[in-house]
């Protein structure tokens, strides 16, 4: 992605729409980490990636058309037919990945039985769920594994992309915080050859992590989650929520509630300084939901956020950009809640490459 940015800048394009670039990067990363699949989707389109993007667009389109909420109408529409076609592409791809991984695991076991010293392949997400067993020693079926893999892909790429884009946006609008994060990353990388971030580095970026968490509070990628009551719940005023009712928990409302957060619309990373967290309600910060059904990929997402933000600030200086259609600075962007939180007309930033000489000065 950064190579693409440098090429665009060299050609005279410095004003970039973040979501266009970052979503492809998170898809690329997730395909490698979850499926061990090199999609090369940032350089050339693939049938699978195009299908994922189309499904995401069609879901939004269907939600906004009330008659399309009924399956017997929707599947007869042009959009419904496109949805089924894209869905079949995604299911075929996932099915082939699962079958390939199952064969590789079987081959690996045969090699281990033969006491060979063949190098072991690193486990990815599909490997982990293929090898998982319940208390009775039963594993998941191929169909169940495909469902888990699809969930991880769909719920993982655009949510993380949204979090990255809004974090970069907030740092572009607050240059002093951006510089403080950049200095923290530079100090961490001091004396190293190259710009590789190691796993142990992630816990050594405290201020950058504070900025990421504050951005997740201010611009949560997911706006709300729902839960179904498993029993009657008594409320104040002699009211009861009956068993089976569905409750919508507003993440946006919680994160912008002045009774929970002081000056909730201000970007202030110091809220997440460990010394300031005393007295904060346990569920005041819930970008990944909470409880036993919280986000399965939150550790993965936070790791990716730290890596991407750190390397981006090490290589580029970011400032608010201009929406070509509206002509306004992105300081005036309007939130656009879709499957994830986006921005009306896109989220535009100016990118300026930083060479090592400039950084040392």
Describe this structure in words.
50% of the residues lie in helices and 10% in strands. With 361 residues, the protein is mainly alpha-helical. The chain has one domain (2-360): Cytochrome P450 (Cytochrome p450). A hairpin with a 3-residue loop joins strand 3 (233-235) and strand 4 (239-241). The longest helix has 36 residues, at 78-113. It starts with a helix and ends with a helix.
The total strand number stands at 9
The portion of residues forming beta strands comes to: 5-15%
Helix content: 40-55%
Total helices: the number is 12
Question: CATH superfamily membership, which one?
Answer: Cytochrome P450
Describe the SSE topology.
Layout: H1 2-10, E1 15-17, H2 18-35, H3 47-63, H4 71-74, H5 78-113, H6 125-131, H7 142-173, H8 175-189, H9 206-218, E2 224-228, E3 233-235, E4 239-241, E5 246-250, H10 251-255, H11 298-315, E6 316-320, E7 335-337, E8 341-343, E9 348-353, H12 356-360
Antiparallel strand pairs: 1-9, 2-5, 3-4, 6-9, 7-8
Helix pairs in contact: 2-7, 3-5, 5-7, 6-7, 7-9, 7-11, 8-11
Note the main attributes of this structure.
about 350 residues; mainly alpha; Cytochrome p450; three-stranded antiparallel β-sheet; about 50% helix; disordered C terminus
Task: Describe what is shown at a glance.
The protein has 361 residues and is mainly alpha-helical.
